[in-house]
Here is the input.
Amino acid sequence: MTDAVPVGLSLSGEQLREHQRLSAQHVTFSVTESCPLRCSHCIVATVPVSDRSRTMPMDRAESYAAQMGSLARRGVRFVTFTGGEPLLARRQLQLLSHAAYDAGIECTVVTACHWATSTATAEKVVASLPAIECWQVSTDEFHSEYVSEDHVVRAAKAAAKLGRNVMVRLSMSLPESAGVVSLYNRLRDALPDIRIFAQPIIAMGRGASVPSFSEMAEVPAWPCVPQGMVVRFDGTVAPCCAGLVDTRDGHPFQYSNADSAGLEGVHQEWCTDPLLQLIRASGFSALMPWLREIAPDHDVLAQTPRHPCEFCVRLWTDPGVGPALRERISRDENRAKVALLARDVFGETFMLEQLAAAASVVRTDERFEASGP
Here is the structure.
């Protein structure tokens, strides 16, 4: 029994860098925004199960499945399926996970386990998705109104029995309540050999209305760890699976639709975005001097959230900040610096290769002009 829930991860600098490095090797697919739950802390504006308008059509899933090999050749090693509740899109989930598995990509699903109504049913559902190796099952005080913790325990035990890697995800308000400590202890007793990861609720999506303590600091305490791009059910692309996953406008991380650019194309855009790669490599502190010039009265300068996701969400509330920072970082000398930073910190050469290709085109044009008609 514990009197306090261990929250988050404690990482050394090298462990943090390795965690960040995986971001370019990871892609998330949000296969549906339908969900049987209506939790007040959710960062996605979900719709009822009966509403299939925000579920990935099969033809789109087939197209993405056919492109898993190209993602693997770019170095993508992991995909995660989320939503909404991804198991409401079972056919799409089976198709995409099999294609990823065949391409050598490890698959994870994040689920609230409404489907684990009995031990037999839970084992049947897990067995129906053999290409998904990692199961992240989620519960918290907010889920309990819709799905009991028994569902999560059954799902976790079923996945473990079938040889899958299992983790329980537990969201919680801070400071922690006696109820969440009790829930953690019950889960720990029921699932002694399964990892439980507790994460604090921060002011994102519907979670912005949930009271929770937000610690302030001089600058965000660690770099952005975006966990890779997110391809939504409709082909639009989010820069991360956190604060901006359900925010389509009003921020500077706008990428092509995956239907038109292809998964390889949008992954290239994500990997060569100098603004994203800067905050991923060195954090928001690198932008603070520019921010003080551009928007000296911005509220994030007066009250700076310690958590980078909360800082990020609040930063773009000023509509002029995103374009101004994008213009600064896109200048040739700054883009080149970020390209070197990405190489030195992550061992990634996407930006350097892009710059070299652009320079080659310029040199070719110059030679053509010099030669005359």
